[in-house]
Amino acid sequence: MESNTKLLIDMEELSALQMDSINGFKQLAERIEHAYVRTFVLESEKQSTLLWQEINAEIESLHGDIKTQGTLKGAINHLWMKLKADVIHSDLPKVLENIKICEEFNISRYQSVLSEKLPPQIKLKLLKHLDTLNSRLKTLIKLQEDLNHK
Predict the structure, then answer these.
(1) Domains, the chain, ordered by start
(2) CA dihedral 134, 102, 22, 68 (to 10 degrees)
(3) 73-99: pLDDT as tens digits
């Protein structure tokens, strides 16, 4: 039972982190004017929503609580990103760097959870999520490189 409780806590944390991502990308999408970055942000929001839904399906099967709010740290970070986007609208590289830091944190949490003994269906799902997050991070890094060369 103890391992089931730990698994549930980990899954609920991943759910909250995905909600942080959804909220952050949604706020940025409203403020970013650069077409390619805006497309990236909108697609990232859709991906995070799908990941959040898949995690919540597992949480429901474990009889846990679905997280409809993100973390306090995430809320503070989103407020900071909103201020950056509003006040320093032309500082797109710093906004992208902030997204990168958040993505790297999410990847590290997934890796931490995946390092534990997990039921096979959850492990496969989280590995798929990790692939999505790693792919998104590579796209973000490429976007940063492209913007730095202009």
Answers:
(1) 2-148 (1.20.1260.10)
(2) 110
(3) 555 555 555 555 554 455 788 888 888
